[in-house]
């Protein structure tokens, strides 16, 4: 499928695709309508040659306000999981499939709204550029939106999570988004599954570059 550059981040990509140039250019992205209501672009963060790239759905309320990925409650779940899985945070680059916060307002609260397929597609050039710049050995795909972006619309996290699958020069391991742990009726069980998937990713890293 050919991407319409008028409804895509592609026309905002800089000539140089190093992370610094990408981050600066992404700050002015208007590739979809999400930029109109979001506070700011929330680009990925981490070392330029990270062993792991972790891809979530989109920034949440706190991420949108602070301008950094995974700084809210889900970020605390993620940090705990990485620590217990033995994944060094200094070897991790974290980002999202969509770089602007999608939400609806309910009173004074901003309620997360799942990005549309068009918004996911529009933001894909940033994610592709991050992957090319970082060149991770393992990509941890967290949640259905990230899975749709990176592994295709037929991929089902519920059925295929925790199984390393080839993705370009890397291996991908899908899992639930850490925010799903917070929403789960049985948080302990949800977290145990999330941690098990991260441990698969940690083990997989030994078989890549």
TrEMBL record:
Residues 43-199 form the Uracil-DNA glycosylase-like domain. Transmembrane segments: none annotated. InterPro entries: UDG_Type-4/5, Ura-DNA_glyco_family4, Uracil-DNA_glycosylase-like. CDD domains: UDG-F4_TTUDGA_SPO1dp_like (cd10030). Keywords: DNA damage, DNA repair, Hydrolase. The keyword Hydrolase applies. This is UdgX family uracil-DNA binding protein.
């Amino acid at each position: 499928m050919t991407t319409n550059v008028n409804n895509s981040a592609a026309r905002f990509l800089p000539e140089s695709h190093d992370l610094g140039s990408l981050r600066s250019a992404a700050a002015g992205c208007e590739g979809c309508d999400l930029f109109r209501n979001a506070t700011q672009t929330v680009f990925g963060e981490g070392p330029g040659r990270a062993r792991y790239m972790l891809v979530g759905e989109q920034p949440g309320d706190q991420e949108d306000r602070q301008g950094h990925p995974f700084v809210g409650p889900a970020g605390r779940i993620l940090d705990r999981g990485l620590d217990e899985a033995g994944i060094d945070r200094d070897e991790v680059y974290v980002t999202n499939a969509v770089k602007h916060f999608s939400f609806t307002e309910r009173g004074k609260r901003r309620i997360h709204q799942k990005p549309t397929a068009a918004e996911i597609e529009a933001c894909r050039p940033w994610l592709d550029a991050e992957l090319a710049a970082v060149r991770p050995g393992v990509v941890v795909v967290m949640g259905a939106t990230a899975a749709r972006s990176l592994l295709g619309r037929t991929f089902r996290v519920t059925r295929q999570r925790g199984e390393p699958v080839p993705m370009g020069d890397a291996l991908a391991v899908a899992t639930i988004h850490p925010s799903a742990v917070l929403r789960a009726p049985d948080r302990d069980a949800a977290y145990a599954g999330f941690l098990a998937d991260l441990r698969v990713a940690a083990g997989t890293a030994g078989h890549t570059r």
